[in-house]
């Protein structure tokens, strides 16, 4: 749904458009824009981040409706618009207008409801979609174009079409942005306060006694940020490194994943993975503790001890684990939750995975993972903001119909958008889903099975109800893949207080429902009908709402799988793995291909070091400043240490200042990635 | 290039920063001068409060300003209502908090905070506790904060159990934290008021000790929990010493009861020798010697002029008081300060007599570890053994195993103990001398036990790699000692406690110092073959041993000295049997 256009030479007829797209595209766009390239980012969708998007509950329902509508009535291709734009010696290469990357979408609602049918959204809610979407994404939408302003989309398109307007574009975008943001700030502060873990105890008992109805989910829908892609950030992974290196980290906040859980024999247990976990674990005896620590210590520098695994280089990792005097319990932990290896993985690879996991421990917390507040969809938007700050332009609901290919050079010289506008370019970056079958030499048949479950409690209740957990569900059969679940509490700002949002992911072998329904009924209590009373004494969380879908996994494809002009670059979609490394590495390698002599995402300068032009026109730098300001007044600013770090003498509430003694580092705190963490 | 953001150059930034700093300094200096002039003029107004605040917020380590601030506040207390002061002090707390953000280890800020908290009409202690928790979550080893926290806990009367849970939490998040473990060790004894703490529990001397009450049992239960906790820590990371140190504390070093452990009386020289359970300065302890019901005026002296404090003291009775072998005498030494005493009867026809608690009676060496139920120690030894199987090279585990073995049965485990010491020296060569000394100590203890079981006065410890001598106060009654073929470098001054010693064999060592052979009234025979004695002056202490008649110096460098025979004859005229 996204197309990034990359203009290495700023010709007079060069245009820039903009839109939010997947992670790879956003990173690439930010990197190009950062080194002075003109970037136009187009997206046929009306929301950001493509398949990496986060939705509020209500906007997700709208998205589902749109999806169903599209399924029923495939849009007819109107090839007329470009006719006449093609000149002598040029060829036309049409792009697909239908996104088929998501299939098998199914939704089930089990929350009790008085009058409404499941899956059916009241019209009023559906209509309010763009606004809700904005509310959820308020902060990162910073330098973007607001789709809900009645005139916005058209405006933007025009602006993009007219070169003289280019320079004022960003500032205008900023002005547009500011209005909704200030309007929302009160509202969101309020909601933020309610979500503060500190005030929750008072609220919690009421929440517990009251069953969550479907109406309640709709009413509180804007508190949800439901990601289509579920991933975590390895604290020493390439995404975190990039966020630090590029200073993009300033646009986002993170929470540590608190627990690594494993589901074994139908019971959920905590996996002790850090030293403190092992020490505190009640399920391991002291000898097991020693054996586990000994093994993990060995994994940290296993390369130094090749003799230990020599005989196993051709054997699977699990066989090596068996040989290591580890009890069955420990083998299970290491294999599924620490190395997160599947059954076939070879010993050295398994050791490497374990090592990576361990190296990520302790950087920000007791698990190797971070999760972005407000959902993973924040991350592409952070890079989009970076891109916009350096002059990139974004357009939503604005798609490219076809490419204009120069017959002589075989290169793509321009694109024609759905309005029939011709926009020239030097490079064209496009998401896989835009490519028609005719241009594919090889089709990926891999799919990812996904499920999203809203539940009423955690799969493993513990002291705090604000945990973020990674749950591994090892396969029942030897050959099938493990299912990975990420359970988010309301402290991650992705669901309403009193609920948990669980993302399940695995490589597909059938439809998402076939793959994941057994796991869901294993982990949760799934009622037979909506509103059914849960069984007495059941310990399992109640599934309130379940969505299944399959997402195409194009990560195995490379340029040889497409027959396209050499300056058209295809971004493959998210892969099935837990980390984001695949997409980041792809962006970096594409960047190096586009601009071999430029640095990939050098640190963005501090706002105070930017020189503003004398003519008083707020340049890109101004948007930086405003961005920062917006961050302060935005809801996230509330909990930020530096915010509370204001001279406390100004504060009249002692309790508040007590909270502000120092940057929080407890498990409930947010994490701000910065270079100093190194 | 077009479209790029223009960024200031480093030089530009530097220049701007420099100017900024200059400006700051100017403001700072003028504020400082203003404060100082107010201070010298005794102006204690709110403006001064403002100014000091301004200065301290940029430099919270300016002690004079904190003091001035307190002066002002004390003055304001005299002119303002309590309500106003409450507000003022609350602002003060907020202010110190902001200073602590600048420097979380600022002595001045923490002290001021403590001062303010103690002046505050209505202190909010929970808030202070949560401040400490926050601070410790950032830096769990901030000792300023630990100190302040203890102050708050004391002032607000936080229950011990709650504090124990607090340490649970800290240890749970990172057990390599001495502060938390140590705090725990101060809390446990308080957990059950009146319960003897593991470290203070006196050694159980008599089996008829007063029946230990309910409280003791609870304490032991808690101890078992502690053992479990600390075992989790050292099994998780056996190389982390904080847990091992805590474990050593748990196993506990019992303090010996203060008592007179031995009284020895000899008709010859009419001398009384007294051994105490600890080092004392006898003349200052209010000792009273009663002979046949008559308090005696005696002068106590230590065994060696080097010692002002010593476990062994002696005195001479007035001439003629016990010299007649046909008389029976009853002697009592009172240690008035400690309300203890020891009797000793000198019977007719006996030249000497003594009364003592033997090392075995006192379970002296066993009590290096406090006496818990043997079964508990036994299971501790088992888990250490388990860990040792997994980590045969771990020095902490080896050492703890040795200590446990000694606590349980020092003689029974002697062979294993020696083997473990050998491993220790190999895995930790940096501390091999320490291990040698410790091993020597244990060997001496074992030999003392064996000697006492055999009821002899002969102490023989040859060829055991002794590197040092200790427990010499326990050898007060020994008449024959054999220390040959060890690695001794000297006979230390403490050796002078062996007041009954007649024969000393210390061949084949590396002795080059004989300080301890001082005023040994019965010493007759000294054999020092193959040692490192090279100077005549080394032998000088022997001059004070009146009965010395045989001296063997063969194989020492000194024998190479010219004219040595004559010089020795002159130095030690009593020696008739000189072997060189």
Automatic annotation (TrEMBL), chain A:
Cellular component annotations (GO), alphabetically ordered: cytosol; nucleus; Rab-protein geranylgeranyltransferase complex
Residues passing through the membrane, by range: none
Positions of the UniProt region annotated as Disordered: 112-204, 597-678
Protein keywords: Cytoplasm, GTPase activation
GO biological process: intracellular protein transport; small GTPase-mediated signal transduction; vesicle-mediated transport
GO molecular-function term, one example from the UniProt record: GDP-dissociation inhibitor activity
Biased composition (Basic and acidic residues): 164-175, 626-635
Biased composition annotated in UniProt, kind: Polar residues: 179-188, 658-678
Top-level lineage group: Eukaryota
Location of the protein in the cell: Cytoplasm
Family: Belongs to the Rab GDI family.
Protein's recorded name: Rab proteins geranylgeranyltransferase component A
Organism: Electrophorus electricus (Electric eel)
Automatic annotation (TrEMBL), chain B:
UniProt cross-references to SUPFAM superfamilies, sorted A to Z: Outer arm dynein light chain 1, Protein prenylyltransferase, Rab geranylgeranyltransferase alpha-subunit, insert domain
Source organism superkingdom: Eukaryota
Keyword Electron transport belongs to the record: no
Entry-linked PROSITE patterns: LRR, PFTA
Record domain Rab geranylgeranyltransferase alpha subunit insert-domain: where: 260-359
Disordered: annotated span: 1-21
GO terms (BP aspect): prenylation
Catalytic activity: geranylgeranyl diphosphate + L-cysteinyl-[protein] = S-geranylgeranyl-L-cysteinyl-[protein] + diphosphate
Single annotated GO MF: zinc ion binding
Signal peptide: none
Keyword match Zinc: no
Keywords: Leucine-rich repeat, Phosphoprotein, Prenyltransferase, Repeat, Transferase
GO terms for cellular component: Rab-protein geranylgeranyltransferase complex
Listed EC numbers: 2.5.1.60
Function: Catalyzes the transfer of a geranylgeranyl moiety from geranylgeranyl diphosphate to both cysteines of Rab proteins with the C-terminal sequence -XXCC, -XCXC and -CCXX, such as RAB1A, RAB3A, RAB5A and RAB7A.
Family, similarity comment: Belongs to the protein prenyltransferase subunit alpha family.
Name of the molecule in the record: Geranylgeranyl transferase type-2 subunit alpha
Native organism: Electrophorus electricus
UniProt gene name: RABGGTA
């Amino acid at each position: 749904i996204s197309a990034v256009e990359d203009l290495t030479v700023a010709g007079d007829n060069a245009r820039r458009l903009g839109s939010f797209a997947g992670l790879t595209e956003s990173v690439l766009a930010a990197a190009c824009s950062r080194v002075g390239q003109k970037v136009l980012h187009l997206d046929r969708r009306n929301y950001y981040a493509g398949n990496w998007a986060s939705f509020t509950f209500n906007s997700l329902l709208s998205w589902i409706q749109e999806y169903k509508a599209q399924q029923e009535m495939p849009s007819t291709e109107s090839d007329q618009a470009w006719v006449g734009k093609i000149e002598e010696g040029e060829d036309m290469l049409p792009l697909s207008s239908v996104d088929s990357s998501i299939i098998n979408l199914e939704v089930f609602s089990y929350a009790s409801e008085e009058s409404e049918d499941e899956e059916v959204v009241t019209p009023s809610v559906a209509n309010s979609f763009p606004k809700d979407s904005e509310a959820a994404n308020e902060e990162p939408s910073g330098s973007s174009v607001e789709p809900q302003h009645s005139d916005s989309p058209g405006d933007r398109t025009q602006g993009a079409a007219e070169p003289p307007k280019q320079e004022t574009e960003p500032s205008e975008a900023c002005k547009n942005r500011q209005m909704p943001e200030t309007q929302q700030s009160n509202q969101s502060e309020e909601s933020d306060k309610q979500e503060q873990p500190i005030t929750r105890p008072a609220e919690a008992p009421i929440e517990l006694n009251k069953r969550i109805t479907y109406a309640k989910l709709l009413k509180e829908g804007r508190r949800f940020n439901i990601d289509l892609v579920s991933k975590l950030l390895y604290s020493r992974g390439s995404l975190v490194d990039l966020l630090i290196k590029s200073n993009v980290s300033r646009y986002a906040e993170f929470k540590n994943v608190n627990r690594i859980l494993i589901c074994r024999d139908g019971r959920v247990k905590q996996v002790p993975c850090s030293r403190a976990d092992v020490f505190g674990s009640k399920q391991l005896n002291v000898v097991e503790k020693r054996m586990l620590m000994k093994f993990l210590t060995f994994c940290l520098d296993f390369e130094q001890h090749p003799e230990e695994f020599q005989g196993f280089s051709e054997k699977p990792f699990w066989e090596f684990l068996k040989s290591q005097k580890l009890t069955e319990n420990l083998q299970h932990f290491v294999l599924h939750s620490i190395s997160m290896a599947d059954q076939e993985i070879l010993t050295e690879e398994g050791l490497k995975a374990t090592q990576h996991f361990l190296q990520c421990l302790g950087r920000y917390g007791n698990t190797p993972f971070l999760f972005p507040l407000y959902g993973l969809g924040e991350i592409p938007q952070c890079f989009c903001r970076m891109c916009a700050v350096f002059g990139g332009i974004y357009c939503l609901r604005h798609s490219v119909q076809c490419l204009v290919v120069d017959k002589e050079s075989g290169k793509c010289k321009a694109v024609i958008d759905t309005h029939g506008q011709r926009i020239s370019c030097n490079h064209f970056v496009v998401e896989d889903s835009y490519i028609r079958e005719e241009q594919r030499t090889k089709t990926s048949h891999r799919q990812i099975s996904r499920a999203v479950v809203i539940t009423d409690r955690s799969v493993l209740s513990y002291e705090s109800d604000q945990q973020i957990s990674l749950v591994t569900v090892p396969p029942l059969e030897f050959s099938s893949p493990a299912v990975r679940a990420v359970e988010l509490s309301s402290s991650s700002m992705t669901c309403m207080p009193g609920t948990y949002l669980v993302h399940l992911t695995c490589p597909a072998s059938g439809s998402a429902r076939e793959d994941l329904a057994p796991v869901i009924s294993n982990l949760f209590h799934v009622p037979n009908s909506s509103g059914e009373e849960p069984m007495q004494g059941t310990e399992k969380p109640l599934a309130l709402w379940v969505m299944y879908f399959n997402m195409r996994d194009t990560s195995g494809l490379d340029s040889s799988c497409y027959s396209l002009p050499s300056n058209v670059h295809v971004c493959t979609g998210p892969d099935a793995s837990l980390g984001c490394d695949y997409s980041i590495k792809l962006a970096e390698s594409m960047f190096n291909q586009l601009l071999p002599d430029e640095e990939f995402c050098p640190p963005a300068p501090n706002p105070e070091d930017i020189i503003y032009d004398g003519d008083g026109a707020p340049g890109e730098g101004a948007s930086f400043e405003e961005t920062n300001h917006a961050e302060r007044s935005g809801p996230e600013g509330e909990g930020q240490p530096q915010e509370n770090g204001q001279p406390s003498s100004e504060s009249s509430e002692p309790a508040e200042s007590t909270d502000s003694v120092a940057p929080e580092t407890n498990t409930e705190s947010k994490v701000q990635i910065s270079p100093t963490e190194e | 290039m077009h479209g790029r953001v223009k960024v200031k150059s480093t030089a530009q930034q530097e220049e701007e920063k420099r100017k900024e700093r200059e400006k700051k300094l100017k403001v700072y200096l003028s504020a400082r001068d203003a404060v100082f002039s107010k201070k010298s003029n005794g102006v204690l107004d709110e403006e001064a409060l403002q100014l000091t605040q301004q200065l301290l917020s940029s430099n919270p380590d300016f002690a004079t300003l904190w003091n001035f601030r307190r002066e002002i506040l004390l003055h304001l207390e005299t002119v303002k209502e309590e309500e106003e002061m409450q507000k003022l002090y609350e602002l003060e707390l907020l202010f110190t908090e902001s200073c602590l953000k600048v420097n979380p280890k600022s002595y001045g800020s923490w002290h001021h905070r403590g001062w303010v908290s103690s002046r505050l009409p209505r202190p909010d202690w929970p808030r202070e506790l949560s401040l400490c928790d926050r601070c410790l979550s950032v830096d769990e080893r901030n000792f300023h904060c630990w100190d302040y926290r203890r102050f708050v806990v004391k002032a607000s009367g936080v229950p011990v159990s709650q504090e124990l849970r607090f340490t649970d939490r800290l240890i749970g998040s990172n057990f390599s934290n001495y502060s938390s473990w140590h705090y725990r060790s101060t809390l446990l004894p308080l957990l059950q008021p009146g319960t003897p703490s593991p470290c203070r529990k006196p050694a159980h001397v008599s089996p008829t000790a007063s029946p230990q009450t309910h409280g003791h049992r609870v304490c032991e239960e808690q101890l078992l929990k502690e053992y479990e906790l600390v075992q989790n820590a050292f099994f998780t990371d056996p190389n982390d010493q904080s847990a091992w140190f805590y474990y050593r504390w748990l196993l506990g070093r019992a303090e010996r009861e203060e008592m007179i452990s031995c009284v020895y009386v000899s008709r010859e020289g009419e001398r009384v020798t007294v051994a105490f359970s600890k080092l004392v300065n006898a003349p200052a302890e209010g000792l009273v010697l009663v002979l046949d019901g008559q308090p005696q005026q005696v002068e106590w002296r230590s065994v060696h002029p080097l010692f002002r404090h010593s476990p062994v003291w002696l005195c001479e009775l007035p001439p003629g008081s016990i010299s007649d072998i046909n008389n029976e005498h009853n002697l009592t030494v009172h240690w008035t300060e400690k309300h203890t005493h020891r009797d000793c009867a000198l019977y007719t026809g006996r030249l000497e007599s003594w009364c003592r608690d033997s090392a075995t009676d006192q379970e002296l060496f066993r009590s290096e570890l406090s006496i818990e139920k043997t079964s508990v120690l036994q299971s501790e030894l088992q888990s250490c053994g388990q860990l040792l199987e997994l980590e045969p090279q771990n020095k902490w585990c080896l050492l703890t195993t040795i200590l446990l073995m000694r606590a349980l049965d020092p003689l029974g485990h002697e062979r294993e103990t020696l083997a473990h010491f050998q491993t220790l020296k190999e895995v930790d060569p940096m501390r091999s001398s320490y291990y040698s000394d410790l091993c020597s100590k244990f060997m001496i203890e074992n030999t003392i036990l064996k000697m006492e079981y055999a009821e002899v006065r002969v102490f023989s410890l040859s060829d055991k790699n002794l590197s040092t001598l200790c427990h010499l106060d326990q050898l007060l009654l020994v008449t024959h000692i054999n220390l040959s073929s060890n690695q001794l470098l000297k006979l230390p001054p403490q050796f002078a406690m062996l007041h009954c010693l007649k024969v000393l064999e210390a061949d084949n060592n590396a002795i080059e110092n004989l300080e301890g052979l001082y005023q040994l009234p019965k010493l007759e025979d000294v054999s020092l073959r193959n040692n490192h004695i090279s100077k005549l002056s080394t032998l000088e202490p022997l001059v004070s041993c009146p009965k010395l008649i045989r001296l063997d110096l063969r194989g020492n460098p000194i024998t190479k000295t010219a004219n040595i025979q004559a010089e020795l004859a002159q130095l030690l005229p009593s020696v008739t049997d000189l072997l060189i």
